[in-house]
Design goal:
Layout: H1 4-19, E1 24-25, E2 31-33, H2 34-41, E3 51-54, E4 58-62, H3 67-77, E5 82-91, E6 103-112, H4 117-131, E7 137-143, H5 144-152, H6 158-166, H7 171-181, H8 189-196, H9 212-227, H10 233-243, E8 246-248, H11 249-262, H12 267-282, E9 291-293, E10 307-313, E11 323-327, H13 329-335, E12 343-348, H14 350-356
Parallel strand pairs: 1-5
Antiparallel strand pairs: 2-4, 3-4, 5-6, 6-12, 7-10, 8-9, 10-11, 11-12
Helix pairs in contact: 4-12, 6-7, 11-12
Length: 360
């Protein structure tokens, strides 16, 4: 295993490579306010981050990644366009996988540029791919935006579309909701009895944190959902076909264009993928052999809303991604206090690179 000094030296060399592309080096503090991260991820982030409390600054987290603080910094006072790079430790709890480090060095490159999003996607992917070209890695790409567009176009209630959109990054829950909304699963007996009956005249003693008005609102929402028409079988089949797309880029685009005939809501997202493929080819990426998978990134890239990518070891499938990244336009809206800008970035793990190179 490489030691810390070797890892930091490689991290410095990678950051210098990005600086040569015009990126400004930034160093967000290791201790980050927890509020923005909790607002973004919800309480789930507590299971993945180290949380502490400060009498003056309130709840704080050890930096779980760089992207969120870089976006906050840029949206506060960044110029346009802008490119940033960074290198430093991030901290992730690994209670379910003790063999993985809970502290490791990350190097990143972030591009904020509204002029040519497809070109920016290609720039980030190609630069990181070139830096990793000497390793035996397989690339993986996808686009969360295609599935988001398909969900937005479903002929169903706003509440159902919102629920499906919220669980795009939780494939099992998404599948369960899709089946439920299509009428494929039987309603549990307890829920059926609850929805069929009237609210009790004398409520039972309150247990837990929910108030009675919150419980009543939830029951009303469940009744409204139960009265909605099921999703059409054809729409569900199209979503399933979309999720099954897993091909090299040219064949994936062909399949996506075929699906867009019956699922016109995805047409614009598919056009974005085609423009990105052209921009990648112009940068020397072998697009003909580049894998594309609609479902890629749905379990680990929660703030991405468009292009996603990763580079994985062929010989060491036990390792996490050596590099990963994607587009996060919606995050800039969320943190921009009314402003927004197209943004894409990627991170690399120099320690894993050295490990694959056999550095001891």
């Amino acid at each position: 295993m490489p030691n810390r000094s070797q890892t930091l030296a490689r991290a410095g060399a990678l950051r210098a490579m990005f600086e040569a592309q015009g990126a400004v080096p930034v160093e967000p503090p290791i201790l980050q306010p927890a509020g923005a991260l909790l607002d973004l991820y919800g309480e789930d982030i507590r299971a993945r981050a180290y949380v502490t409390s400060d009498a003056l600054r309130g709840e704080q987290m050890l930096r779980p990644d760089f992207t969120v603080p870089v976006v906050q910094m840029h949206m506060s006072h960044g110029a346009e366009p802008a490119r940033y790079t960074y290198a430093g430790e991030v901290f992730r709890r690994q209670e379910h996988d003790p063999d993985r480090p809970n502290e490791y060095v990350q190097v990143g490159y972030e591009v904020f540029d509204r002029a040519d999003p497809a070109g920016a996607d290609a720039e980030v992917f190609a630069l990181i791919g070139d830096a990793l070209a000497h390793l035996d890695l397989r690339a993986a790409t996808g686009d969360i935006g295609v599935l988001m567009a398909a969900v937005a176009g479903l002929r169903t209630t706003d509440a159902r579309r919102a629920a499906l959109m919220r669980h795009i990054w939780r494939p099992r829950r998404f599948r369960a909701l899709l089946d439920r909304y299509a009428g494929r699963t039987r309603m549990p007996g307890a829920r059926r009895n609850l929805l069929a009956g009237d609210p009790p005249k004398s409520p039972a003693p309150m247990i837990g944190l929910r108030r009675q008005d919150e419980i009543d609102a939830r029951i009303a929402a469940l009744r409204e959902d139960a009265s909605a028409a099921p999703l059409g079988a054809h729409e569900v089949e199209l979503i399933e076909a979309l999720l099954a797309v897993r091909e090299t880029m040219p064949f994936a685009l062909q399949q996506l264009r075929d699906l867009a005939v019956d699922l016109p809501a995805i047409a614009e997202a598919v056009d974005r993928i085609a423009r990105r493929a052209d921009a990648m080819a112009a940068r020397g990426v072998d697009v003909g052999a580049l894998p594309f998978e609609t479902s890629y990134g749905r379990t680990s890239m929660e703030y991405y809303d468009g292009f996603v990518f990763g580079f994985h070891s062929v010989t060491r499938p036990d390792l996490p991604a050596i590099a990963s990244g994607g587009r996060y336009d919606a995050l800039t809206r969320r943190l921009g206090d009314g402003g927004e800008i197209p943004a894409v970035g990627g991170v690399m793990r120099p320690g894993l690179m050295l490990d694959l190179e056999g550095v001891a």
